[in-house]
Design goal:
N-terminal domain of TfIIb; alpha+beta; elongated; DNA Primase, Chain A; Dna Topoisomerase Vi A Subunit, Chain: A, domain 2; about 280 residues; 3 domains; 8 helices; four-stranded parallel sheet; five-stranded antiparallel sheet
Length: about 280
């Protein structure tokens, strides 16, 4: 049960205001002619700013709500907010779809990831990709330098909030989490199409993992670089997953980089994971 459902069930008139509902005070000793109580729309905490009567809506009516339900409601609200936002970024004027096979990736896969080239300062000498969020809106572009230029990877605009990418269907309830965009592109190119990337091990948190859970994911295969930093990050993310009720397993291939696996190696991994 969520806060709004409980208010409706109890016949309590309310007005949404920001992140709260405004209602007449629930304190039976307070004759509240000018509604002065705010109730958090997610967790049900309430506070009357006139008489200072405080509490929780669920406890007040003898109802219960789990921590998992609160997190789910928070994530659902964030998804709704994202869908209500503007349509997002557009491809730069004059862009050209990339049709090559750099790093052995097929043109078909580059097309799937909407790769493009452009002469602008943010894109030149790079293969660029639009990064779409859960609603399909472009929130950023990432460009990979094809020579020795720096930085190797560049985001436009800087500081954009990056989602887990791309949106994929799980396989047996599982997605494979990798670190970088060429890791995920290579796995998709070789046939492992339930892979997603986080754009760096510091760009993942419980909210993003919870969004996967809302979408029906029940298990995450963490496939980071096999070196010590990669494995340490994998262990930290496994703890996050377990904290929110997602099963996680670490995929470790003797320091092999998921972005450099051959088709034969990916097929072997696939048969091992989903035999």
């Amino acid at each position: 049960m969520i806060v709004e459902e409980l208010l409706i069930q109890k016949g309590i008139p309310y007005v949404p205001k920001g992140k709260d509902f405004v209602v007449k005070c629930l304190n039976p000793e307070h004759d509240d002619n000018n509604p002065s109580m705010r109730i958090d729309q997610i967790d049900g905490r309430f506070n009357c700013f006139a008489c200072e009567f405080k509490g929780n809506l669920f406890s007040f009516f003898g109802e219960t709500i789990s921590g998992i339900q609160v997190k789910r409601d928070i994530v659902k609200k964030k998804i709704q907010e994202k869908r209500a936002e503007n349509i997002g970024l557009s491809f730069p004027s004059g862009y050209i779809p990339y049709i090559g096979n750099w790093r052995g990736i097929s043109p078909k896969t580059y097309k799937k990831f909407e790769a493009f080239e452009h002469a602008g300062k943010d894109y030149i000498s790079r293969i660029n990709f639009p990064i779409r969020d859960i609603s399909g809106k472009i929130v950023a572009f990432q460009g990979r330098h094809t020579a020795q230029g720096t930085p190797k990877y560049k985001f436009s605009p800087p500081g954009a909030k990056l989602p887990l990418f791309p949106q994929v269907a799980s396989r047996n309830g599982e997605v494979i989490l990798v670190e970088g965009i060429y890791d995920v592109i290579n796995l998709h190119d070789k046939g492992l199409e339930n892979a997603i990337c986080c754009f760096g091990t510091n760009n993942i948190n419980e909210d993003k993992l919870s969004m996967l859970k809302i979408q029906g994911v029940i298990k995450i295969g963490i496939f980071f670089d096999g070196d010590e930093p990669g494995q340490k990050a994998a262990s930290n993310i496994k703890v996050m997953c377990e904290k929110i009720g997602l099963f996680a397993r670490n995929i470790h291939l003797n320091e092999l980089d998921p972005g450099a696996l051959t088709e034969a190696q990916v097929r072997k991994l696939e048969s091992k994971l989903y035999a």
